[in-house]
Structure formats: C-alpha cells, structure tokens
Hints:
Elements: H1 16-31, H2 38-70, H3 81-90, H4 103-115, E1 122-125, H5 132-141, E2 150-154, H6 160-168, H7 185-188, E3 193-197, H8 204-216, E4 218-219, E5 228-229, E6 233-238, H9 242-248, H10 253-259, E7 262-265, H11 276-291, E8 297-298, H12 300-308, H13 314-328, E9 332-333, H14 346-355, H15 368-390, H16 395-402, H17 406-415
Parallel strand pairs: 1-6, 1-7, 2-3, 3-6, 8-9
Antiparallel strand pairs: 4-5
The structure holds adenosine-5'-triphosphate (ATP) and magnesium ion.
Amino acid sequence: MKILDQPIAGGSAISYAGLLEKIEILRSALRWASRLDRPEIEKLLRQSSALRDEVMQLSHKERFVRAASSAEPVEPMERSGGERRRALLDRSFVFEGTFGDNPKLLEALEIAEKAAPTDLPVLVDGESGTGKELMAKVIHANGSRADKPYISVNCGAIPENLLESELFGHRKGAFTGAANDRKGKFESAHKGTIFLDEIGELPLAGQVKLLRVLQAHEIQRVGSDEIIHVDTRIVAATNKNLRKLIAEGSFREDLFYRLSVIQVTLPPLRERRDEIPLLISFFGDEAAEALKRTPVKMTPRLRDFLLNYPYPGNIRELRNLIYRLSCLGGDVADIVHLPDDIRPSAPARAAYDAIAGLDNGGFKLTSLSDAKRAASDEAERAFLERGLKEVGGTVAELARRCDMNRSHLQMLLKKHGIRSKDFRQHHGNADDKSKAH
Ligand SMILES: Nc1ncnc2c1ncn2[C@@H]1O[C@H](COP(=O)(O)OP(=O)(O)OP(=O)(O)O)[C@@H](O)[C@H]1O
Ligand SMILES: [Mg+2]
C-alpha cells in the first residue's frame, strides 16, 4: 500500500484539492483491505497522523493569511509609518533588521507579510542596494519554512555554462569536469526557500527548466533523465527591467508571469530621503557595535554632505559609508574621511562650510546670522560664476540679462575675486570687446 509518500500539500499554495485526494486514497486503501496485519495498521496510523499534521499546517497557514489580510480594517495608507510598523510588530512580524517607516517600504513589508505564509513565488525588484536580498530573507523568516534551508544563488555571478548545473545539479560525466554526481541548489533548498538573485541573467535554457520547477515542482540534473521532485519556495530578484528583457527576447514572458505572481518593489533611497538621518544613526550604532567602539561623531559639514548626497548605491552605499566613517573617523569623522570619488571639491566644501555655519573646518558654530550671510555669499558667487559662463565672460551682457547695473556687477565680481576673462577663453569669445576689469 503506497500512499502519502509525497507531502500532501505538494509544496504549492494552500491546496484542499490535494488534501482531499490524499484522504480518498487512504479511504480506498482501507475499504479494499481484506485483512490488515499489525505492521499494516501501524503504517496506516502513521499516514493518518501525517495527514492530520498537514491539515493542521494548512489551516494554520490559512488563518495566518486571513489574519494578515483582515486584521487592520483601516486603509494602510491612511495610517502613519510608525503605526503600520507597530501593527506589523504586534502581529509578530520578523523584520530581519529592515529599518524605516517610508510608506513604500512598509507597503513592501505588508505584501511580504501576506505572501510569506503561502508558497507563491515572489519577484522582488528595485535598484541596486535597496534591500532585495534582505526582503527575500524577510519572506523566508515569516513563513512556515523559516526553520528549513534558505539558499541564495546569484544568477549573475556564475558563468553561464555552469549555471544550470549549479541550480539543478549534474550527473557524473555530464560535461568535462563533472567528476561526480552533484546535487544543485534546488535540491539543497528542498522544503525551504531558494533566492534567485539577478534572475534576468538566467540563460534561456535555464529559464525553461525553471518554468518546469514552477509548474510541476520537478527538476532534472544536467545529463540525467531522472525526474526529481522538489518542494522549494522561489523568491527571485532583479534590478533590471524584465519587461524590457522580454521585448529584447532574452527573458521568457511566461516565466515572468509565473515568477511575479506577487511582486514587491523596493523604493530607492532618494525617495525616502526624510529617513536618511535615522538611517545614519541606525547604521552608526550598528557599526559601533560591530567595530566595538562608541558611535562616531560627525562634523556638521559631513552631516550636511550625507544628508544631501544622492546615493546611487542606495542603502548599501549609505551603510558602507557609515561603516567607513566609523572606522576611519577617529572620534570625529569629517568630509576628508569620505572616499575620494565622492569627496566634494574645495569650492563645494566651502559651500558646505558656509551652510553648516562652520569656521573653516573647525567645529565652532558661528551665529545664525553669520551662517546665513556665508550661505548667501556662496550663492552670490555661484550665481556670478554660472552667469559669466553662460554669457562667455561678457560682463555687459550679464548685466543686461540680469537687469543689473554694470558697475554694481563689477563691484560684486571684485568682492569675490572673480575675473571675467577667465570665462572668456572657454567659450571662444576672444573677440569680445567688453572688458570687465
Ligand atoms: N531597509 C533597510 N534597513 C536596514 N538595512 C537595509 C535596508 N535595506 C537594505 N539594507 C542593507 O543594505 C545592504 C544592501 O541590501 P541588499 O543586499 O539586500 O540589497 P540588494 O537590493 O540585494 O542589492 P543588489 O541589487 O546590489 O544586490 C545590506 O547590508 C542590507 O542589510
Ligand atoms: Mg542583492
């Protein structure tokens, strides 16, 4: 009597049809048994217990989904970030260190909360460094597979010819160098979650195989005909536009739809700039703990830089910067401790000094009116320089365009030590007759 050898739910979404089928098999086994001996009875009892456990698990999952979707009658968007975060905490949501109250981030976490207890595939998208891998861990940690393996595969980091074998395993002799049978990441992630990072890099042949996993929960090792059942929850991530790849013919549309049953989009840091101060102190404390030191202090001009920097590398870049500053900054970190390629130039530094109300790189705060005057001087200088550049160094023209008195303009240029002729060479206006100085 061979029943219930496979998990009842088949690793897919909540499936009562699958359960009923298993119960029917069990019933017919009993109905047709002419005589049962002791081992047979024991086996049937074991199978009934397994069935009961699966029913319990499914009903738990279903309750979890229902609770997640109906616990809050208020529209999530109407509640503040803090309230939404607290509500998640009250529902024992595992954040895995995800920090922030930005509405888009919370929306992503709320979707993750609902998706986690199901086995539906999730596609996480967002720019580099926005926390896609972190989100995959959040989904794993909040589901029923939390104590099972979590396997992460970066499809972009494995050479194309090895990727299939890495994911699906291979049979001895399947290709040069395949000295032994080897199981792939899908088999390692059996019962758990597999995170397929940079899914857009998966070659087309691998995409076909992945489609099969999603449809039938089956894989074949490279070079083998044997079909292996895998029960693996798939979370994929991309920082590419998969629709564009589909249009270019390098990504299968059917796979995209299968993978993105649930899509979670993470906001770039520039859309959550109001959280930068909090993130700075969050990572400052984290770095201090990791480096076993007290949290680093920052000069006002460094803080100003960090609050205004565009962060193309998103949270990862901010986090790395804070770790770097915590390590190199001694007691007080300054702009000089920033990496060369993003450290502001001398004039920009002067502007930060002015805005931060600083006394030449020291830490002495001047009065508010001094700070304002310095900032206004800096704005005046930048305006004159930009204007002269635009008119190719012709003071008369600048005066005309700005509707200013020419001698007043010349006085201002003098005050800032700006020479109009420096702007002339660059613009090929050598024949200009107007002389500023
Ligand atoms: N909301 C957040 N709160 C705290 N830390 C975060 C958050 N988002 C990202 N991080 C941290 O930033 C770093 C980058 O995150 P992660 O590796 O998940 O980004 P990613 O989107 O996968 O980047 P990439 O596309 O470059 O692979 C990690 O150290 C992660 O812990
Ligand atoms: Mg990543």
